[in-house]
Amino acid sequence: MQASDRFNINSQLEHLQAKYVGTGHADLNRFEWAVNIQRDSYASYVGHYPILAYFAIAENESIGRERYNFMQKMLLPCGLPPEREED
Amino acid sequence: MATLDPEIAKTQEERRKMEQQLASLTSVTFDVDLYGGENRFEGYERSIPVTEDDENLDPGESEVARKLASYTAPKSVLKDMPRGSEEDNDMGFKKPSKIIDREDDYRRRRLNRMISPDRNDAFAMGDKTPDASVRTYADVMKEEALKKEREDTMREIAKKKKEEEEKGKAVEREKDDGSAPVQKRRNRWDQNQEADGSSKKAKTSATGSDWDMPDSTPGIGRWDATPTPGRVADATPSVSRRNRWDETPTPGRVADADATPAAGVTPGATPAGMTWDATPKLAGLATPTPKRQRSRWDETPASMGSATPMPGATPAAAYTPGVTPLGGVDLATPTPGAINLRGAITPEQYNLLRWEKDIEERNRPLTDEELDSMFPQEGYKILDPPASYVPIRTPARKLLATPTPLGTPLYSIPEENRGQQFDVPKEAPGGLPFMKPEDYQYFGALLNEDDEEELSPDEQKERKIMKLLLKVKNGTPPQRKTALRQLTDKAREFGAGPLFNRILPLLMQPTLEDQERHLLVKVIDRVLYKLDELVRPFVHKILVVIEPLLIDEDYYARVEGREIISNLSKAAGLATMIAAMRPDIDNIDEYVRNTTARAFSVVASALGIPALLPFLKAVCQSKKSWQARHTGIKIVQQIAILIGCAVLPHLRSLVEIIEHGLNDENQKVRTITALSLAALAEASAPYGIESFDSVLKPLWKGIRSHRGKVLAAFLKAIGFIIPLMDALYASYYTKEVMFILIREFQSPDEEMKKIVLKVVKQCVSTEGVEADYIRSDILPEFFRNFWVRRMALDRRNYRQLVETTVEIANKVGVADIVGRIVEDLKDESEPYRRMVMETIEKVVANLGASDIDARLEELLIDGILYAFQEQTSDDANVMLNGFGAVVNALGQRVKPYLPQICGTIKWRLNNKSAKVRQQAADLISRIAVVMKQCQEEQLMGHLGVVLYEYLGEEYPEVLGSILGALKAIVNVIGMTKMTPPIKDLLPRLTPILKNRHEKVQENCIDLVGRIADRGAEFVAAREWMRICFELLEMLKAHKKGIRRATVNTFGYIAKAIGPQDVLATLLNNLKVQERQNRVCTTVAIAIVAETCSPFTVLPALMNEYRVPELNVQNGVLKSLSFLFEYIGEMGKDYIYAVTPLLEDALMDRDLVHRQTAASAVKHMALGVAGLGCEDALVHLLNYVWPNIFETSPHVINAVMEAIEGMRVALGAAAILNYCLQGLFHPARKVREVYWKIYNSLYIGAQDALVAAYPVLEDEASNVFSRPELVMFV
Lengths: 87, 1273
Fold this sequence. Notes:
The structure holds 2 protein chains of 2 kinds. Chain A has helices at 9-18, 30-47, 49-59, 63-73. Chain A is mainly α. In chain A, helix 2 runs antiparallel to helix 4 (63-73) and helix 3 packs across helix 4. The longest helix of chain A has 18 residues, at 30-47. Chain B is 65% helix and 0% strand. Among the domains of chain B are: 725-890, Leucine-rich Repeat Variant; 892-971, Leucine-rich Repeat Variant (Alpha Horseshoe), CATH 1.25.10; 981-1056, Leucine-rich Repeat Variant. The two termini of chain B are 70 Å apart. Chain B is mainly α. Classes of the chains: A mainly alpha, B mainly alpha.
């Protein structure tokens, strides 16, 4: 960030962005981004009742079970994180 | 506008002086604690904050804004307009003011405090026993105890001495009369009341030394001046007396023999035994005892710098105790002559010496030779002085003698003295900022061109710190900024010790200015943050320097002080804070206790009240000293004041902690307890009465048994507790207390009066206190005692009385109150009449006039007319407001009086005095609406003609008011009925538009705008064009309201005469140089386009873009941006038309082109979202997108906003697709930008992205696919 950036709205913008979990940065790797995507997706499914109902019909599960499953999947949506290569 | 203009500053200064005079008249014996001493405005803002007054400068303006609300530019634009250069000139060049100049004696006592040596950090040590050489808490407490003991002894001796004296006097006096005991008694009271001050005085008389004087001239003179031999001589006579003190070889003693630490700490005898200046006697006395290694003499390295200018020596070296200062050789006894030759004399001394020399030179008696050379040799005879002549010897009388004109010295060319060193600063090496003379003692070392290599690492560090500090203190803003950043970044590297040893003495510098203090405090704040727990040993030092900020009269200084202390307590932790401040709680100096209490309250609010409660409890119950109890209770009071309603959760415990203070043996403790209860009740209103249950009884007993100021404090507490009560209890208790209150109505004590008024106000406003009771029991006495002329003379009495009366009126109704005071409108004292008028105004404005019967109405109007006509003082607003309020409240009932009122107005419009004319015109604008209600249109027409005739007025203030009055009349009777007819009126206004006075401009443009809006057809188009040209000039106005009204007027005129001509004028104006003017023009163009439909304007506007001139093209783009902002979804019809133009602009080399075009695209996208213009928008986005790598903040902002706009119009998925290409780009710079865009996209439309995320391939152990999305039923 340059000196001129420090005090204008951009810096506040970045501060604001940093407050949201799902936002990213230049050093984000594929896995972390994918985890965010997955969690956002599950959160969205759970949040929209019609979609939830649709999935429930498709999977022949109860809506509550679907919701529970989605929430569980949010824990480790993509499995364990890969080993970080040393750098 | 933003800065106080000099006139206001002058008036404020005068008022302050007057207040001081008043205070000095009234403050004979009142208690500083109870009545707050000089700083009773503590906690109030003395001046109105200047930040927001642009927005709501006066009600008239906002009213206009409401009326003309239809077309207006966005706030950001109007705010953004840069101010003219004149304004900037007087903004940055306010005279730097020294803090000490505006401080009163009490506040100057800060200079008496000593920056105490570092203390032990108990946490850092773990279980180790502290080294003997560090100062632990126990040491400090011991010192305090010693100091206290000494003070007590001193007081005892002083008392004894006084008693002896009194006895002697009494014996003498007994011969005359027997009043001796009375006298003696009084003295004792006085002494008690002024506790520390008088005890010091007593001490002075005991020791009789200059050094011990309680500082009547604090700081400057004595404090950091070199101890010249003359001064030492002053001190010598005291030696014999001192001897008695010095027999006891306690080390603390000697140092403490002077209350002024600086004087006390003349570091005459360092353990090394180095004598450093010409005070051998003192030094001899100060031989430290071998028993304790560190005597207080060498403990105060910090203040040493300020106490002794050390020529040639690096003060740094001198600060480290035990180390022989480098320039030791130089420090041999300086002769007065030598002092002159030294570089490092304090500036004060310089000035003093020079001044003395100068004065002596001028005032020396003329010799006979000089007289001979002045007068002609012949024609004069030398007479012998009369035998009875005795020359005046007493200097005081000499000063009073009238200077005869002959005595004025003639100008003589001053003799050149090459040996003298002037204040010209030595060139500072290495790009260091200018050094002021008083900075030498702190930064003098920087001038020594020592070789950096030769210095030890520590010294190099010191030097570096000094350089940075000097840059922060005196440097240019960029220098300051980088220096501040370096200090912050390297804080831990420098270490807390070296940093604070440099910064804190600077803050004690007597010549410090506001700005410098602000900067240094900022340094401390930043450094604190970095150092964190490393500050612990320095907590007390920092507090000594920062605490005075808490009682500064400047609001922002107080806030700053609070912030620092709060950060400090978070960094150091509660235990350290308590350990550091505990010794000050029962300090003998009231000043120290006062500031400590305030600091403690800040600590409480920073770390939470519960954490501090146990400590507070212990302090408030201290058996050892009443001072501790007093301070403890005061802390509670300050907590209540500071955190307001947040005390509620802890209210009960706080009350419990202090309640026993009501029965304390010490009167001051009782008083402060009552005041603290009052503060708690005020803070917790209207809740929390349960918590006060336990104190009700002692308070009630108290008001019956106490008198004087304790009673006042108790009454205040009750006054604040009663409003918390249920209606039933409130009524009961009010009746109980009222009996005492009514008794105290007659009290001659001003402060008591104020408190009584306040309590009455509180009681009366409480629910449950019946109107009948007030009417029968309170009103008669109240009016008899308070509604007297004398009350109008003191400003605060005046205000309090008005407030209380208005509160009573809210209960008992208008008629009772107004009926009682209406006769006084004809009182012969003008201030009193004004007070009556203000009360009536407020009462009537609150409650209306329906209670007022015909007879009272007659009296009222009569009285008001009388008061209005008889006013002579400058402060005319009260009468004007009162008149306006009453007339408006009475409404149609005024009709019979209107001819009389108008007669008065007309007569006064013709008055010689400008103020009177102005006021008369103002009155018309106040009552115009009522005149309309009374159907007095003919009368208004008549007034209109009269006002029209006065348009030639030469005083701009008056002219502004006249225009305002005309506007009011036009507004109520309408364009058609207006006399003089609009077609005559407007041409008369055109030349007035040229007037540069703000008030005239504002009223005139409002009136013209009004006519353009409602009655444009009455005036020829050519006249409107003429006005258009004048209006262009007004776009330059400083006041936002004027610029806004002007821009709106353009819209109205364009509507009236068609856009072509107006537009041509405006487009031409785009070529001017001033940015502000162009900005306003673009706004006006956009408004014209909005008023007359865009298609009438766009062709001409786009055609103008072909002019190959930067300003014009930018102006066109900016107009487009505003245009699309205003027209919103209407933009869908024009988007295809302007796209080629925007394409061109977005590809332009000029940054501003792209920036402005981007913001136009933003507004366009937002306007047409969902209206099926996606094709054009995607096209434009393709032009916007390459600009994302711009670095100029304005451009990048505009681009990002355009992209946000596109997100709204095109949907998040489309933008995400643009984003994906760069999120994992190999170049970091690219990734950063793309992630930034992604993040704002994510925040804006997270949910919408779910469907659009790319499909990621699974990896070895990780599953990235989202199978749910492909489910299909």
